[in-house]
Each structure stands twice: as structure tokens, then as C-alpha cells.
Amino acid sequence: MKELSLVRLWSTCCLLYMSTVLFLLTSGGVYATSEYLVGLGSYDITGPAADVNMMGYANMEQVASGIHFRLRARTFIVSEPQGKRVVFVNIDACMASQIVTLKVIERLKARYGDLYTENNVGISGIHTHSGPGGYLQYVVYIVTSLGFVRQSFDALVDGIENSIIQAHENLRPGSIFVNNGELLDAGVNRSPSAYLNNPSEERSKHKYNVDKEMTLLKFVDDQWGPVGSFNWFATHGTSMSRTNSLISGDNKGSAARFMEDWFEQSTAERSYSEESFSDEIPRRVSSIIENYQDSHEELLELASYFESEPGRPATRISSSARRVRSALRKADKPGFVSAFCQTNCGDVSPNVLGAFCLDTGLLCDFNHSTCGGRNEQCYGRGPGYPDEFESTRIIGERQFKMALKLFNKASEQLQGKVDYRHVYVDFSQLNVTLLKKDGDSEAVKTCPAAMGFAFAAGTTDGPGAFDFTQGDDKGNPFWRMVRNVIKTPDKKQMDCHYPKPILLDTGEMTKPYDWAPSILSLQILRIGQLFILSVPGEFTTMAGRRLRDAVKAQLKSSGDKEMSGEIHVVIAGLANGYSQYVTTFEEYQVQRYEGASTLYGPHTLSGYIQEFKKLSKSLLLGTTVEPGPQPPDLLDKQLSFLTPVVMDSTPVGDSFGDVISDVPKNLSLTRGNDQVTVVFQSACPRNDLLTEGTFAVVERLEQKDKSWIPVYDDDDLCLRFKWSRPKKLSSRSQATVEWRIPESASRGVYRITHFGAAKKLFGSVHHFTGSSSAFVVT
């Protein structure tokens, strides 16, 4: 009897266990056996939305004057339960900055000791050309921003640190899945003539002249289910043009916004079931609320009761509290974090329709990207041409849809060690050994940094000025004379960079401090069978392929059993610092923009491959590497010539936040077709970046209690916040809020509210808000 009772008890326990497991599997609570701790975080890094030059196009006239949508730092941390950990941060910025990375690491060491260091923390930029500049420490990268911009720098350091803190505090048992797929219509080669100079037998191995593969990681929390995704895909952040003045994450930032909103919408509409997720473009979750049953006339009557509210004082937290995606409303579980990361995008343009001459409408010259011998008229066209905002949305949407497909079908689980290697390398004088086909070797060296004449020609994404052209391997007498006034390169330097004609000898220019970097950060982060190569530059398509292949071959040749199966090697571009471009030796000979911007001479790529093979070998053997020479900290030497905000003012009798141009009375608008615009008395956005807040919000009237619910803000692509002064040095300014009403908006009564901060003459800042009259959307 006792034995029978034990058998029955054992059977009952087994049945209960199996039922529990089955329930968890079908409800999404368990996805796989986890062997990692996983944490994700996200934080606002939107810099000054006024007066500051944008980073990327080097166009002095491209100065920030508002927000398309906000910029974020998105982080994942993966740790062995009792072992090593790695941190990867994707920032909506043109590139990572060496000085930003150094200061983030300083803060992390002060907070966590040696848990997070330059060895296991990687920071990569998406390469948007529509973010505030002035946050790099070398002269050549901050000339157009009138020197160093402390506010840009602080926004990045603070935001990156906070995103890492979030990820650290969210560390929980979880699993990671990897998936790959081809995305064919989000990038084209903008320097095909240089690509064609690569050996034909090498080109024949590849179907396309740009990389089409997206690699995606899916992060799954043991309790909460999916909590995020990070992917790598090559395309430039140049859907927004060199004349755009609104802060924007460009196509990758918009893709991230789509993916995060999709997940929020999917979980809000139904309990989670992976199979039930669709690949539809998300409608904003804020619109999933009760629709009005009133007639159109009744809605108009209701709206008429709400006239514009005059400007009034507000608190710093008022803006954050009204933010649609406020963290205050998501405290019960980790928010879903999705990052669209950059890789070897050096010669890849999102302007997929091709490059055309503005004056004739004909295709630009194939070899030099010129129109009638000049480059200024040659521009690439995005899929939404001539609307750059539409092109940004489309290329972002294409990346989002591919990421969603990979996310829903990801089944290969990452398993194995978490590890990392990092080294600083002086690329101004690196000895490189080249292996020849006959088995012999040749010793060569890299060069101190220098930029060629074709650098000034720009690209089809953003052409330069004057008479510079791509493919110029000679230069011209006039600009050579101008160059010599600044710094004349010696024969050794010119021979080292040959056939690049040197326009700016930046590596040998040190007044008032260094013009270009010499010491670069190289890093490998390993998570099981995934290897992330963090590189401080823009590798062209073929350069990236050679680096990936070399590292993969090194890993495979080790004989390590863990390397016998499928391994994934991805390049994280523009990471931990910035040193412009890296082309192949053959592409360098053509001296298009990318070759002219390959700073350390024709053997730059070979230097990278050599050093990454060393790191790969060390990683597999478990040996240490010498840290290399420490890069300089030039923060105390930085100069800034950006005019500060002295004070803000309004016309006599007006207040900050007052409506200057209101909506018309009895205004009724149609979803998907109409736009509404409201203008407010405002103040300079540099007074307060309203981090994790918003400068503008669209509010919908809740019928039950007549309260205003935020539904769209300055982190939505449909709302644009524009700021302007009547004159350059005027203390008066105004904010224009434009809302393009999406199809997904709910029928109802709406208004637009503006938040800001004004500065008094003696430096104190006070916050304000104001609201428009109500209007109807049907």
C-alpha cells in the first residue's frame, strides 16, 4: 500500500509538472533553457534642438531648429550567471565618440568598479546625419559646429550611462536567439566604380555589390517573454538630406520606433502569443481607446467649449508626465527595446532610386558622380523622392518589416561562452605584414592620418562645394596652394598615402590640439556563437566582407569544438570612436570619397585584419592582450565659439506659451489627409533639453471625465516640432507644431500643447506650457 501510494503521488507530481510546463510553453512564459542573464535599457539622448550644427554632412548651414523625432541610447547586457559579461550600446547619433566613450567608462567604473570597462563595453552609432554635433574631441570633426558643444556631449554621456544602468538593473535569466535574412531594397552602392576595382574573382563570390543580410538577436526573459531585439544591417543614415534642420534618427531610428510601437500595440491588444504577431505597420497604441459615439455636430459643439489656454508656469516634470511613452506608466515590467544598428555601410546609400542631376534630370557621371564636370548638382534619390521624410519612413519601414520577420521566426539559440577582447592600436605607424599569393610576405606601414582632395567632393548623399570631384587622384594647383598655407605634407607622408593627393594633413596637425585620432579602439564581444567586431569607422562593403571572412577563418582554424558549427560574425560600425572610412586596397586606388577619407593610407584595412586576427586568436586561446597605448583625453583643451543663450523674451503683454496662431473655429479634419498647425510664443530649446520629456504633445479629450490624454508627442514621426527666431540674435522666438493626422488616429476632439523653458537675463530658467483651442478629427 505504501509503495502504491508513493507511485500514485509520483504519477500525480509528474502530471502536474507536465501540465505546468505545457501551460507555460503555450502561454509564452518559457521559450528555452536559459544560460544567460539578459538586461536591456533605453534612454533619451536628444541634444540641443536649436543653434547647433548637425553632425555628418559638414554643412555649416545645417543647423538644428526642431525635432522630427527623438534620439535614444539602447543597451543590452548579457552575462554568464557567475562569469563574464558584455555590454553593447546602440546610439542614435552619427557615430560614437572617443571622448564620450572614455567618460562613460569613467562613470561606470565609479559606480560599478571593474564590472564594466573599455574591454567589455561597446558603443556604436547608427550614423544619422541629423543629430547635433560638437561631441567629438578632434578638431576636424567640430569645425562646422563652431567647436565643442558641451550640451551635445553631456546628453550623450548622461543618456548612455542611464541606458546601461537600466539594463544592469533589468538583468534576469533569459535566452537569446539569432536569425539572418536578406533585405534587398534598402541600400545601393553609391561608389560602384570603386567597387568594380576589386578583383573579379572576389566580386564573383557575391551576388550583390552591397551586403543585403540583416542579422538579428531576439532577447527573451524567462518570465516576461520577449523584451527586445538588436539587428545589424548596412545602409547610411542619409535619407534625411543635408538641408534638413530637424533632429532625426533617420531611417534606423524610425525603424526602431516602428518596432517598439509594434510590440507595445501587439501586447496591448492581445495577450502574448508569438504566432499571433502580424507584420503590419503599427498604429499608435495611444489611439486604441474608446471611440466617440457622438455625431459630427456634437463633437464640434464639444470642441467649442475648449478655447486656447494662455501660457502658464509649469514644472520640469510636467513635460515628462505628458510624454506618450512615459516610463512612469510602465513600471510593472521592462519596456521592449529594439535597436537597428549600423555595420559596414561605407559605400551603401539608402537613396535607392539612384543619383541624378538636379539641372537635367539625367543620371550623374558613373565614375565621378558629376553633372557637367561638377559635383554640386548630383544627388541621390530616396524611394519617397522628393519628400525626404517619406524616404526616411519607407527605408525605416523596410528594415522594420525584415526585422519583424526575423524576430518572429528566430529559433537558433545562442549558447556558449561570454567573452571579450579589446586593444588600443596606434594606426599612424602600424607595421603590417602582407601575405602574397606565392607565400612570401611584405612588410608595409600605415600612415599618419590625412584626407584626400576627393573628401571635399562629398558623396551623392550630400555633395560638397567648389570644384572638387570624386575619383581625383591628382588634386589641383589652387587648392594645393590653399592646403600649403595650413600645413604642407612632406614627401614621406605623400609617398605613404599614394595615390591619394593630400588635401588636409590632419594626422600631423596639432594646433590648438590634435586634428585627427591616431590611437583607435578595436574590440570583439562574444556571446556563444556570435562575435561582434567593434570598429571605429565606416567600412565599405568589400572591406567589411574581408574583415568578417578573416576573423571567421581564424576562428574556424582553431580546432575548437565550439567553432565547428555555424558561427555569426557581425561588424558594429562607428563604434567607440571615429576615424572615418576604411576601403580595400583596390578601392583606395580609385580615390572616390571613401578612399580619400581612408585616413591611414592604402594598407588601413590590412592593419585592421591583422589586429583582429590577433584578438580572435587570443579570445580562443584564453590569453590576455596588451592594452596598447591609451588615447588622449582632450576634454580640458576643447574650445567652443557657439553663442550662449543670454535671455528669452516675448512682446509686451504676451507670455511664454501663448498661442500666436491658433486653429480656426469649428475646425474639422480628416484622418490620413489633413494637417493642423499651431504657433506658440516660445523660448530657446537649449535652455532645457526636456530629456525623457517632450516639447509638444497632441492630446485627445477623454469623454468620460473630460480629461486630456496624450496620444502623440515629439517622438512620433507624424508630429514635427519646429523652432525659429525672427532674427539671428533675437531674444524672441516661436515654436511651430505640425501634426499630420495619421490614418490610425481615433475619431474625437483634440488639442495641441507646447512645453518649454525660458531663460531670464541673469540665468535662471522657468518652465512654461500653453495649449491650442480644441478641434475635431473624423
Automatic annotation (TrEMBL):
Start and end residues of each Neutral/alkaline non-lysosomal ceramidase N-terminal domain: 36-610
**Keyword Glycoprotein attached:** yes
Spell out the catalytic residues: 349 (nucleophile)
Q: What is its EC number?
A: 3.5.1.23
Relay the cofactor remark from the entry.
Binds 1 zinc ion per subunit.
EC category: hydrolase
UniProt xrefs under InterPro entries = Ceramidase_alk (IPR006823), NCDase_C_sf (IPR038445), NEUT/ALK_ceramidase_C (IPR031331), NEUT/ALK_ceramidase_N (IPR031329)
Q: Which family does it belong to?
A: Belongs to the neutral ceramidase family.
Q: Which GO terms describe its molecular function?
A: metal ion binding; N-acylsphingosine amidohydrolase activity
Needed co-factor(s) = Zn(2+)
Q: Name one GO biological process term.
A: cellular response to oxidative stress
Q: Which residues bind Zn(2+)?
A: 127, 236, 538, 581
- Quote a single Gene Ontology cellular component term: endoplasmic reticulum
Annotated localization: Endoplasmic reticulum; Golgi apparatus; Secreted
Catalysed reactions, semicolon-separated: an N-acylsphing-4-enine + H2O = sphing-4-enine + a fatty acid
Keyword match DNA damage? no
Q: Which residues form the Neutral/alkaline non-lysosomal ceramidase C-terminal domain?
A: 612-777
Which superkingdom?
Answer: Eukaryota
Keyword list (alphabetical) reads: Endoplasmic reticulum, Glycoprotein, Golgi apparatus, Hydrolase, Lipid metabolism, Metal-binding, Secreted, Signal, Sphingolipid metabolism, Zinc
Query: What is the official name of this protein in its record?
Result: Neutral ceramidase
